[in-house]
Amino acid sequence: MADLKEGRYIESSAVGVDLYQGVAELPIVSPHGHIDARLLAEPAARLDPPGRLFVTTDHYVVRMLHSQGVPLERAGLLSRDADGRDVDDRVVDDHAVWQLLADNAHLFALTPTGLWLRETLATVFGIEEPLGPHTAEAIYVRVEEQLSTPAFAPWALLDRFQVECLSTTDAAGSSLAAHRALAVSEPGFRIRPTFRPDAVVALDAVDWRDALSGLETAADHEVGDYASFLVALAERRAAFKTLGATATDHAAMSADTTRLTHHDASALFAAALTGAVSDADARRFEAHMLNEFARMSMDDGLVMQLHVGALRDHNRPLAARFGRDIGADIPVATDWTRGLRPLLEACGSDPGFALILFTLDESAYSRELAPLAGHYPAVLLGCPWWFHDSPAGIDRFLDRVTETVGLYNLAGFVDDARAVTALPARHDLWRRRTCGWLARKVDAGLLAEEDAHQLAWELAYGLVRRAYRLDS
Amino acid sequence: MADLKEGRYIESSAVGVDLYQGVAELPIVSPHGHIDARLLAEPAARLDPPGRLFVTTDHYVVRMLHSQGVPLERAGLLSRDADGRDVDDRVVDDHAVWQLLADNAHLFALTPTGLWLRETLATVFGIEEPLGPHTAEAIYVRVEEQLSTPAFAPWALLDRFQVECLSTTDAAGSSLAAHRALAVSEPGFRIRPTFRPDAVVALDAVDWRDALSGLETAADHEVGDYASFLVALAERRAAFKTLGATATDHAAMSADTTRLTHHDASALFAAALTGAVSDADARRFEAHMLNEFARMSMDDGLVMQLHVGALRDHNRPLAARFGRDIGADIPVATDWTRGLRPLLEACGSDPGFALILFTLDESAYSRELAPLAGHYPAVLLGCPWWFHDSPAGIDRFLDRVTETVGLYNLAGFVDDARAVTALPARHDLWRRRTCGWLARKVDAGLLAEEDAHQLAWELAYGLVRRAYRLDS
Amino acid sequence: MADLKEGRYIESSAVGVDLYQGVAELPIVSPHGHIDARLLAEPAARLDPPGRLFVTTDHYVVRMLHSQGVPLERAGLLSRDADGRDVDDRVVDDHAVWQLLADNAHLFALTPTGLWLRETLATVFGIEEPLGPHTAEAIYVRVEEQLSTPAFAPWALLDRFQVECLSTTDAAGSSLAAHRALAVSEPGFRIRPTFRPDAVVALDAVDWRDALSGLETAADHEVGDYASFLVALAERRAAFKTLGATATDHAAMSADTTRLTHHDASALFAAALTGAVSDADARRFEAHMLNEFARMSMDDGLVMQLHVGALRDHNRPLAARFGRDIGADIPVATDWTRGLRPLLEACGSDPGFALILFTLDESAYSRELAPLAGHYPAVLLGCPWWFHDSPAGIDRFLDRVTETVGLYNLAGFVDDARAVTALPARHDLWRRRTCGWLARKVDAGLLAEEDAHQLAWELAYGLVRRAYRLDS
Fold it and tell me: Contact A327/C445, CB-based, under 8 Å?
C-alpha cells in the first residue's frame, strides 16, 4: 500500500468519489472523545513519543498484541500492586515499544487500527513508506522529530485538522480546571467538557468512595445521603454547562433503566455509604440513576449519551495487574427494548430531551434500536462504536438502521479518539464510507443523486451539530 | 428521482433485468394483509382521501413523523378518553395532513416507505413529480380527483393490479358479513378471510370480554368454560373455511408453545372469566393456545401463520391516548428453537399441517429459523416482515436462509398491506429484489441461468400459492 | 450449470482469480472431521455405494429431504426399537435412494450441499451432466463403477487429493486400533486421532454408562469415582498423543464453563454412578468438565476445540425412531462472554494453551467471539461451522471478525467432512471464497495486493497448521 489512492475505501462508482469531494474538506466536529483537556489548555504541551502515542495508550493496539502472546509490559504498560499503584519503576524504552508495533504490523492487516495507523502516518506525518521491522527506526525518528515541533503541539494540530469543536469526557468530580483556563484563553467553547458520572454511580466499585469525595470537593457540597448526592450532581451539571458542556455520557453493561422509589434509592445509597452493597443492588442503583439522569436532562437540556453492552475487565487477573482500559472489555447481548422502556415512557416523548444510543450488539441495530429511534422523538442513534467503527461496520450500521429510521434520526459521527493525531483518519474514513454507501444507493435507483449530496453533508457535518445541540 | 429507471432496485447485471421481465406481469397473489373486506364487498366504496390514505392510516408514516417530534394529532390521529372512545371531535383537515407529509418527505429518503410512496404515486396515479412542500397541493388535487373516480374504486383497482386472490385478516368473532356478500357476488373466493383469534386468547387484555362476546355471538354458542371456548373456536374456523379461508394468523411476543393440561387450561380460563389473571398466567395461556391452534390446524387443514416478536404498545402513555397500531410496537429477541419445540414435536411432522413463521429478529434467520424449516416438514419461512420488508432486508433474508433451506421451504411473498393502492409497489419491489439477488448468484456461478428463471417464478408466484394452499 | 467456469464462486475482479491460482494446488490440511479411521487403516476398504454415500450418511441431504416431507426410510435410514437396536431388516435399495436425491435435486439449488454435490461429481468423478430424474440411473452407474476401483479406495483418494494430514474424531473410550495400525503402516501421523470425551461427560445421557465402560476398558483403569475418572481421562489423552493427536474436541449446548469444587464434582459423579442426576446437575458437570479439560490442555498441550450452540435431537419422537445425527439438531443463542469467563480467566493467558471456538450463532461473531479472540492469547476462531460453512456464510464470518481480530487469530479451515469424497469440494470452496473476499479488499484499497497473496496462503494452509500445532 505504498500509495494511497484517491478513491480508497469508497467502493463505488464515480458518484461516490464525487460525493466524497463535496465533504472531504468540511470542518471536524468531534463531540465525543477521550482527549485530555490539559493537553489543549497548556500551550507548552506536547504529545507523547511515538511508542507511547501509538501503542501504549491505544487499547486497540495493546489488545491485538496481547492476543498474539505479547506481554503487556513489552507494550509499555506498567503493572500495579494491590492498591492500584504502579510498582514497575522500569523506564520504558519507547523505541522498543515502537519496534514491537513494527515487528507485528502484519497482524493489523484488514483492521481499522492498521488503516488508521497507515493513514495517520501518511496524512499527518507525511510517511507513506510501509511500517515494518526494517523501516521502524527510520520512521520513529521522523515521527519523533515532528512531534517535538510547535507545529505538532495539540492546539496547532486542531487548527491544522480544522477541528471546529471538540468535547472531552470528564468525571463528575473533575475540577474542570483545564476547561476554565480554556474558557479564558479561547472564548467560544471550541473545547467543551462532557459530564460523565459513571464512577460516582457504581456503588460497588473499589474506587467509589474516592470518586464520591471528588464529587463533594468539586461541588463544594457534602454528600451524606441520596438527596444531597442528587444536589451535588445537579450542581456539577450546571458547572459543566457553564463551561460549554452540551452533553452527558453514561456507560452501562445493561440497558436496564428501572426506576426505584426515592425511599429505596436512598436506602441503597445509605447502605453503600455505611458498608457494602451486593452486585445486584449496585446494578439496580445504576439502572435507577440512568432513569434519574434522563430526568435531569429534561430539566437542563444536556444531551444524554448512553453506551451499553461492555462487560468491563473480563480478564480480572490481568486487570488486577494492569488496571482498566487494556483491551479486555468484552461485549454482551443487550435487551434495549425492555431495558429502556421505563426511561422512555417517562422522558422519551419530551421535546427537550435527547438520548443518543451506542451499542456493541449489532443484532440490535435492526431489531431494537432502529424501531426505538423511529418512534420516540428523544432517541437518536449514535454511529458504530468501538469494534464496529470500521469500514464494514459502518456499512452494516447504515444498512440495518436507515430503512427503518432514515438518516435524520442518526446523530452523525463521533470519533471516540484518545489522541489528537487520530482525528483526521477517523473522520475521513467515515466520510469515505458513508459517501460510498450513498453512491451505491444512487446506483441502485434508491436515492436521487442530488439528495445524496445533501445526505453526505448531513452525515459528515449537519446531523452531529444538531444532535449535540452545538448551535444552541 | 424524477424518472424511474427500468432496472431500478435490481442491482445486478442484465441477467437481473431479464429475470424481472419474466415475472413483472404475473398476477398478484396476496394471502396476508389488512385491507378491510367491506371496501371490497360494497360496490360504492371509495378509498380514503390522500392525507388519511397515505398518512393517518399508515403506521410506518406516523411513526417516522412522531420520531421527529410531530404530534400525532397533526398526522390526523384522534385522541381517546380512558374508555377508549374518541374524544377529539375535531374535523381533520386532510389537506394539512398531506402537506405535513410533503413537508417531511426528506425524512423518508432511503426508507421503503419513501420508495413505496414514490412508486405508488408514479405507477398508480401517474405522478412522477417529487412530492415536496411546494408540489404538495397540486399533487393532492390530482390524487384526490383520481380517488373519487370509479376507476379507483377498490374493486376496480384489484382488477387493474391483476390481483388474482387476496386474503383479509379477521377477528375470530367477526360476522364475516362482507365475505358472505362477496361469496354471492363474486363466487370463487378471490377474496378470502383469515382467522385471527388473538383477541379472544389474551386473557388479560382490557377488551378480552368484548372479544369473547363477539365470539359467542358469531359462533352462536355460549362460552362458559374452556371446553365451550374450544367448541366456539372450532365453529368459527369451520365458518371461515366455508367462506374460503385457507389460513389462520397468530401474533405473540414470545415463541413459547408450552402445552398446559386440559385441567390447567380450564382453570386459567375460569379464573379469567370470574376475575383477573396475572400477566404470567395470561402468557402461559397464550403459549398453550398456540399449541392448541396447531392441533386444530392438523384437523382442519388451515395453514397456521405465526408472527412473533413485537412488544406491542411500548409507549403506554401514548397508547392510552391514541390506541394501538400507532407505530409504537418494538421488537424483542426471540428464542424460536426452545419456544416452538412443544408445538413442533407434536405437530411438526404431520403431513397435513403447515406453519409459516414470521420474525422481527433477523439474528434468528440463520441461527434458528432456517434450521427449523430445513428439518420439519410443516415449517415454511414467511418473507421479511414489517421493518424488514425493504430492499436490504430482502437481501439479508435470502442470504441468511437459503443456504440452509433452499427456496422450496419459503412461503413466497405477502404484502401485509393496509391499503389497496399499496399492493403494486410492494409486490414489484419484492420481484425486483429477488430477481437481482438471483442474478448475482448466477453471475457468481452459484446458479444456472435457466434455473434462475424457474426460481424467480417460484418467488413471485408459485411458492405462495402452494404454501397457502390456494389451489386446493 | 453444465460447465464449471474457472472463476466460479470468487465474485471479484481478476485479482481474486489470481489469488486463487496461487493457493488452488496447495495440499489439503484437515485437522477436524468425521471420517472413520478404519476406512483408512484397511487397504481393502471401499466407500459406500452412491445412495448411501451421498444421501443416507449425509445429514445435510437427509434433513432437506425430510423438510419436504420425504420419510427418512426412503433416504435409507433404518428405524430402531426402544433399546436403540435396528428393527428394520429391510434391504435398502441403493439405486432408489440415489433416484430420490436426483428427483429432488432442485431443492438443493443455492445450498452448499447442492454445490458440493455438483463439484464432487464433476471434479472427483468426471461427471458434469446435471443430476436429475432422467440422468439419475446413468450417473449412478458411472459413480458406482468408479467407487469399486482401487483408484477410489479411501487411501488412494487421499493421495489423489493431496491430503497432507487428516484428523479423525474419536470417543474417549475408543481403542484407537485403526490408528495403531496406521502408525505402523504409515509412520509420520498423516492420520491423527482427536480426543472427544463428550459421551463420558454427559451424566444424564442414556448411554453414559456404556461410554464410561468403554473408557475404563480403553484406559485399563477402573472408574469408581471422580478422581479415578480424571485419571482415566488423562491416560487416554496421553494414549491419543502417542498416536499423533494434537487436539481434543468438545461439543456443548451452552458455553458455560463454571468450575465446581472438587468436592461438588465428586458428589455429582458419585450420584450419577449410583442413580440419576437432574438435567441441571448434568449441565453443571459438563460446564465444570470444560473448565477441567482446559486445565488438562495446559498440561499436555492438546489444542482444545469447542463447538457450542446445538440443541441436539430437537425432534425427540424422530430421534427415538432413528437415533442421532439425522438433521434435527437446531441451534440456540450463545452467551460466550459470560460463559467462557471462568475458563479464560484460569487458562486463557497461558502460552501453552490453545482454544479454538466454533459457533452456530452468527450474531456472536462481532459481538463476542472476535473481541475474545482479540484479547486472550489462547483463543483462536474456528471457521464457519455447519450451516454457516457456505459461500455467503464465509463472507459474513470474515466481514464480522477480521476487523477486530485480523487474520492471525483465526484457525484456518476445517472441513468437518464425513466422506473422503467430500474433501476437495469443501477446501476448494473455502479457497475460492477467501480469495474473492481478499480481492474485494484489495480493490477497495483496504489491502495491498502483495499482502493479499500472503494472507490467501495463510487462510488456505498456514494458519491451520499453526493453530493445530501440526508442525510440533
Answer: no
